[in-house]
Amino acid sequence: MAGAGGRKGPFRVGLVAATAAGRRHARILAAAWPHARLVEAESVAGALRAAWRDCDAVVAFLATGAVVRILAPLLGDKHTDPAVVVVDEAARHAVALLGGHAGGANALAAEVGALLGARPVVTTATDAVGLPGLDTLGWPVEGAVAAVSRAILDGEPVRLVADATWPLPALPEHVRVEIAPPSTDPAAPEQGESAAGWRILVTDRVVPLDGRTVVLRPPSLVAGIGSSRGVPAAEVTGLLRRVLADAGLSPASLRCLASVDLKADEAGIRATADAYRVPLETWPAADLAAVDVPHPSEVVRAAVGTPSVAEAAALRAGGTLLVPKTASAMATVAVARHAPRGRLALVGLGPGAADLRTPRAVAELRRAAVVVGLDQYVEQIRDLLRPGTRVLASGLGAEEARARAAVAEATAGHAVALVGSGDAGVYAMASPALEHADDRIDVVGVPGVTAGLAASALLGAPLGHDHVYLSLSDLHTPWEVIARRVAAAAEGDLVALLYNPRSRTRDWQLGTALDAFAAHRPPDTPVGVVRNASRPGERVHLATLATLDPAQVDMYSVVVVGSSQTRVVGGRMVTPRGYRWRS
Question: Where's the Tetrapyrrole methylase domain (predicted)?
Answer without folding.
Answer: 343-548
